[in-house]
Amino acid sequence: MSAVTVGATGPVVVNEFAKLRHLRVGLVAGLMVLGTVALTLLSTVTSAEFADPATRTWDVPLAGLSLAVPMVSPLLLAVVASRMVDIEHQGNGWLMGSTSGVTPGALCRAKLLTAGTVVVAATVVTHLAVWALGRLAGIDAPVPVGLWAGFAVTSLAVNLVVLALHLVLSAKVDNQLVALGIGLLGTVVAVFGSGFPGWFAHATPWGYYSLVAVAGYEGEHLVTTAPSYLSVLVLVGLAAALFVLVTSRFDRQEARS
Amino acid sequence: MDTVTTVNLTKSYGRQAVVQGLDLRIPQGCVYGFLGPNGSGKSTTMKMLLSLVQPSAGEVHIMGEPMNRRTRRRQLARIGSLIEAPPGYGHLTGGENLRLVQRSLGLDEAQVNRAVQAVRLDKQLDKKVANYSLGMKQRLGIAMALAREPRLLILDEPTNGLDPAGIEEIRELLRRLASRGVTVMVSSHLLGEIDKAADHFGILAEGRLLFQGSREQLFAAAVPDVLIDTPEPRQASAVLDGRLTTRVEGGSLRIGGIDNRVTARVVADLVGAGAPIYGVRREEQSLEDVFMTLTAGGRL
Predict the structure, then answer these.
(1) What is the CA radius of gyration of chain A?
(2) Which end of chain A, N or C, is less packed with Cβ atoms under 10 Å?
(3) β-pair partners for A97
């Protein structure tokens, strides 16, 4: 007979991966990749710069990516978080975890680690797919590795912050339509964030998608710019602290009667 | 030795006291029936025993050690529980759900198999929990609680949704566990569902413990009415008029709340007054009657 161990972290994370089975999170992540790549390719092949081999540079797909990521990510991240958390509401999982020594906060942290892994994988696949398809489409210019890597890392960071926010939201509010509605509003903020003043972009996590965009059009000219590293760094620090604080409060929360 | 003891266990939300000054004593290896009408504080008490809800006052000791946030993890390793709705992820099969528990508690295959066999769920493990009946979900929840082979099992209304055969199976399971030395605390608002399994009882109403003790003590706590069989019940009633509360029921006179000494004197008075008596007996009462008496017909 094994000695019973209660509340160890490793098995909690492994269990979260096991719970993903039949949950179609992989499908949602696939849609995220497919949607982002499709929108990027569409905007690339329809741009004037792409038509002329002399101006066919990587700035064009990067501009497409900078637009596609905020269009696709916020809602699908909300869906991923909602699917992963709703099973706890439906299956009395919070209480089951608590009686096995796994507090609701620990469960949320394990979910961020699990869903975060899926999001990291989706991001890597998306960027690799855009690079491969760009090459196939005839973009022979040298890859702006620094700029692209900067965009990949900062947009991933914003995605993880939005994911963390949605995990907390879905855990706090039983009705998942609320979380999905907020995800939809987030998409609007993310897409139109660049049209608002700078302070507005900093006011919500979704606004940061406009701060990490590395290419876009100013009038008819395609311009590139470095992501706002400092802003994203501050966002990640603040979000991490808040996530730890809120999930620690979940740990101390009493079981609902 | 008592497996569970509480001292002045109290829980209030704002000004509303949900559980008041509970001193529970649950002996080792017994099936403790925790009874009370809906809303009497049973679930809150059980959650406090598991340290899922923090008491406003008082203490909980499990197997001689305090149960609180600091000791909870260690204590939970030896306590199985099923609180409120049965747990289970609907998108996974019963077997996959049990593997989650197995991994989370570091159990071996044999422990899980024994728990599954105990609730007779072995043929349903490949089915998704979403397609389980409520009874099957209850069994799965109990299997999850049993898998760690606990020394204390806390079950909140485990017979909810079960058919009569399922209820009998659970009763039998509880008795079997107790015979192996496991202490079982089982709550219900329906006495009939657990009275055959439990040997100790705690009766809760409005957050207060009305009674606690063995089955025999419970019967002794509520004195049953005395029925005096006589062809002249009205004459007999007139003899006792003003001294005792009596009621004529067909060929009997019913007298409530009198002990054996008073019963003997009443019989002597009636015989002395010339009332014909051919039978004196205490009304047979079921545990249900005792429960209803103690809780004022379930109104408490």
Answers:
(1) 20
(2) N
(3) none
* 8 Å CB contact of B81 and A7: no
pLDDT of residue A1: 52
CATH code for residues B2-217:
3.40.50.300
The ranges assigned to domains in chain B are 2-217, 223-284
What mean pLDDT comes out for the span A162-186? 95
Query: Closest Cα partner for A49 from A170, A209, A215, A183?
Result: A215
Q: How far is CA B95 from CA A22, A112, B98, B144, B169, in A?
A: 14, 25, 5, 11, 21
pLDDT confidence of residue A257? 45
Cβ neighbour number for residue B110 with a 10 Å cutoff:
10
Architecture of the B223-284 domain? 2-Layer Sandwich (3.30)
pLDDT digits (tens, 9 = 90+) for A175-197: 999 999 999 999 999 998 878 88
The answer to whether B8 and B58 have CB atoms below 8 angstroms apart is yes
CB contact under 8 A, A18 and B54: no
Contact assessment for residue B20 and residue B68, using Cβ atoms and an 8 Å cutoff: no
Phi, psi of B167 (to 5 degrees): -60, -45
Cβ separation B50–A99 shorter than 8 A: yes
Which stretch of DSSP H or E encloses residue B79? strand B79-82
| Residues from chain B contacting residue A26 (CB–CB below 8 Å) | none
Q: Which of B79, B103, B110 lies at the smallest CB-CB distance from A11?
A: B103
Domain residue limits, chain A: 9-252
pLDDT tens by residue, B157-185: 888 878 888 888 888 889 999 998 999 99
What is the model's pTM? 0.84
Summarised one tens digit per residue, pLDDT across range B78-133 is 999 999 889 999 999 999 999 999 999 999 999 999 999 988 899 999 999 999 98
Count the Cβ atoms, other than its own, within 10 Å of residue A248. Answer: 14
| Interchain contact, B90 vs A92, CB within 8 Å | no
Tell me the β-bridge partners of B17.
B12
Residues in contact with B33: Cβ distance below 8 Å, sequence separation at least 6, in sequence order:
B186, B187, B188, B191, B194, B195, B197, B198, B200, B201, B202
| Helical spans, DSSP H, in B106-253 | 109-118, 134-146, 164-179, 191-194, 215-221, 233-240
- For chains A and B, what is the number of CB pairs under 8 angstroms? 103
Q: Which residues contact A12 (CB under 8 A, 6 or more apart)?
A: A102, A106, A107, A110, B104
Instruction: Report the SS3 class of residue B152.
Output: strand
